């Protein structure tokens, strides 16, 4: 028993913010952002919400899969920027779609959120507990950015990507995942402060802080190792893989991973030039972009990998 992705979908906020737009309001430039990251523009939410974009992406994925909402029995959303502490983004999507037969919950594994959600769906589906899952990555990161910190705010964007995942008899699904909480401080954002009858910590909101170079070093060593682990487990060579669909944080990370794996950069498609880093959403956003362009053929072997806050990482080899 295994799983297969049967459909994909995505949604972005309407408003495009280019590097030049940012350079008008802060001390940065298209040259700095493009050459350091490959990012040219990102979408920023105005009235869009994490759950609203996620529901739109989910509807598109169900349509692509030819599946009715009643057939969905599991909804998992990878997110660190849900609209509420509770209800979860997944429960909000369930309500919005009328997916009355589904159990729904969120997973916070930062930029690995979609991969951790996919692995969790695999465990449920492969065990026979559920049959059809909606797996998403959805973020409104713009609300947790410090817009006075040019070293982080220029990197991130908003959006949501979805995949319909089905239990199937045949196919490949091999995965690896890990966490290293000891290094968690290199990418962090505090939740609400304690303000109760006994303690008053104040009401200063916190924003994302990142030690970019530490995260960079972590990514370029951990991601190729995780990919190699999965390929070894499956007995598949890197040459046999059609595409490496990686978390879109920085084009230099993708180039470094390609080099370490001795694989052509052409096998590492990108969407970060148009999306920026959308944390948990980048892998399904890119997958949907590729699907729409007709790049994915039945039987293709695809490696997907997410990495980031926690620290966390998750990789899967699938057959399309
Ligand atoms: O999704 C989570 C995973 N996240 C990542 O994978 C991020 C990984 N890290 C990175 O992608 C890179 O470390 C960054 C793109 C975040 C930063 O690139 P860097 O080459 O490590 O730059 P830096 O932080 O060392 O900064 C170099 C210079 C500094 O100036 P000085 O001190 O050399 O004078 C910064 O102040 O660039 C300056 N700088 C900027 N300049 C113009 C920082 N941000 C900006 C900016 N525009 N937006």
Describe the protein's architecture and organization.
The protein is of the alpha/beta class. The protein folds into 2 domains: 2-170, Peroxisomal Thiolase, Chain A, domain 1 (3-Layer(aba) Sandwich); 174-319, Thiolase/Chalcone synthase (Peroxisomal Thiolase, Chain A, domain 1). The protein has 10 helices and 13 strands. Strands 1-7-6-4-5 form a 5-stranded mixed β-sheet, with helices on both faces. A 4-stranded mixed β-sheet has the order 8-13-12-11, sandwiched between helices. Helix 4 links the parallel strand 4 and strand 5. The two termini are 15 Å apart. The protein binds oxa(dethia)-CoA (UT7). Residues 28, 32-33, 36-37, 111, 150-151, 154-155, 187, 212-213, 215-216, 219, 249-250, 253, 277, 279, 308 line the site of oxa(dethia)-CoA.
Summary keywords:
Peroxisomal Thiolase, Chain A, domain 1; 320 residues; 10 helices; five-stranded mixed β-sheet; binds oxa(dethia)-CoA; alpha/beta; four-stranded mixed β-sheet
Please tell me the CATH architecture of the largest domain by its name: 3-Layer(aba) Sandwich
End-to-end C-alpha gap: 15 Å
Question: What is the CATH top level name of the largest domain?
Answer: Alpha Beta
What is the structural class? alpha/beta
Small molecules (ligands, ions, cofactors) in the structure: oxa(dethia)-CoA
Strand content: 15-25%
Tell me the count of domains.
2
Helix content: 25-40%
Number of β-strand runs? 13
What is the CA-based Rg, rounded?
Answer: 19 Å
Characterize the overall form.
Answer: globular
Low-confidence stretches: none
Major sheet characteristics: 5 strands, mixed
| Sequence of strands across the biggest β-sheet | 1-7-6-4-5
In CATH terms, the superfamily of the largest domain is: Thiolase/Chalcone synthase
* Nearest-integer average pLDDT: 97
Q: What is the H/E string? A: EEHHEHEHEHEHEEEEHEHHHEE
């Amino acid at each position: 028993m295994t799983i297969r992705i049967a459909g994909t979908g995505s949604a972005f906020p309407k408003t495009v913010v280019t590097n030049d737009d940012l350079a008008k309001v802060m001390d940065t430039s298209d040259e700095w952002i493009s050459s350091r990251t490959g990012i040219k523009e990102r979408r920023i939410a105005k009235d869009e919400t994490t759950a609203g974009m996620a529901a739109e992406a989910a509807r598109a994925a169900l349509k692509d899969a030819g599946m009715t909402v009643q057939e969905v029995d599991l909804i998992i959303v990878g997110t660190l920027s849900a609209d509420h502490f509770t209800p979860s983004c997944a429960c909000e999507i369930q309500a919005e779609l009328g997916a009355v037969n589904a159990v729904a919950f969120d997973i916070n594994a930062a930029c690995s959120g979609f991969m951790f959600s996919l692995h969790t769906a695999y465990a449920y589906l492969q065990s026979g507990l559920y049959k059809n899952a909606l797996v998403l990555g959805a973020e409104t990161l713009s609300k947790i950015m410090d817009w006075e910190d040019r070293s982080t705010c220029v990197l991130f964007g908003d959006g949501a990507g979805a995949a319909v995942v089905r239990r199937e008899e045949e196919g490949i699904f091999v995965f690896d995942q890990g966490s290293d909480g000891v290094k968690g401080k290199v990418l962090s954002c505090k939740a609400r402060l304690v303000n109760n009858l006994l303690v008053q910590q104040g009401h200063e909101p916190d924003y994302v802080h990142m030690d970019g170079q530490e995260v960079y070093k972590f990514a370029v060593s951990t991601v190729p190792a995780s990919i190699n682990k999965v390929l070894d487990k499956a007995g598949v060579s890197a040459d046999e893989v059609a595409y490496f669909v990686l978390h879109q944080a920085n084009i230099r990370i993708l180039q470094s991973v390609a080099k370490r794996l001795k694989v052509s950069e052409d096998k590492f498609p990108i969407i970060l030039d148009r999306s920026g880093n959308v944390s948990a959403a980048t892998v399904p956003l890119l997958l949907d972009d590729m699907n729409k362009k007709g790049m994915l053929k039945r039987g293709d072997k695809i490696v997907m990998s997410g990495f980031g806050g926690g620290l966390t990482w998750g990789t899967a080899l699938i057959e399309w």
